[in-house]
Amino acid sequence: MQQTDQTDDGVTLWHVSQARSFRILWALxxxxxxxxxxxxxxxxKALRAPEYLAISPAGRVPAVRVDGQTMFESxxxxxxxxxxxxxxxxxxxxxPDRRAFLEWLHYAETLGQHQAQLTQQHIMLRxxxxxxxxxxxxxATRLARALNGVALVVQGQDWLLPSGxxxxxxxxxxxxxxxxxxxxxxxxxxxxxxxxxxTARPGFQAAAAADGPGEIYTRxxxxxxxxxxx
Length: 230
Ligand SMILES: N[C@@H](CCC(=O)N[C@@H](CS)C(=O)NCC(=O)O)C(=O)O
Prior knowledge:
By secondary structure, the protein is of the alpha+beta class. The protein has 8 helices and 5 strands; from the N terminus they run E-E-H-E-H-E-E-H-H-H-H-H-H.
């Protein structure tokens, strides 16, 4: 595990470039929370090492150390950081947008499951015979359908919540940033413009600069193959 950015007020992020841990990296930069990053890799065995499994039981990223404890699950981490360090990114109980805040925070993982399938099929399964063109097309369609729900909202307002930018734009925004490798965002009205608003934010750009060399997605776009026998 390589360690960088020695600034440390107690928040350490375990991160793989381009992975869901980018959500946390973005939130840390967006809110100006001092932190350090432990850069991990899917190559090798670091995510399966007993010391990492003690932090993240399924060997996934993100994980953080915060307030003297470790924590996994990006949605929970975003909520905790909002509660403890960045109230402007959260919507506390009683806020008029609280219900929608929770919906979108969890919806990010509805999007995430389709992206995980697409990433498996296009990238992680290395041999052609392991992949399924049917699953690739189906998951791309399901991801686009799920993104339609996001588009319907951001056509009428800048951010997912009427009260303004929040952690749910980070959670879902990460998905959108990856989804454009599988879905043509400009074919869903409102999505490309929302993506442009997200990526123009200084917090996003600082996180992108700190993301490290991408190791998952090497192509701009992964086209679903047709079903003809190869
Ligand atoms: N719901 C979890 C998902 C975490 C997750 O699956 N992360 C992926 C990277 S995007 C991972 O670590 N995969 C490694 C593996 O599956 O072994 C979260 O949002 O934190």
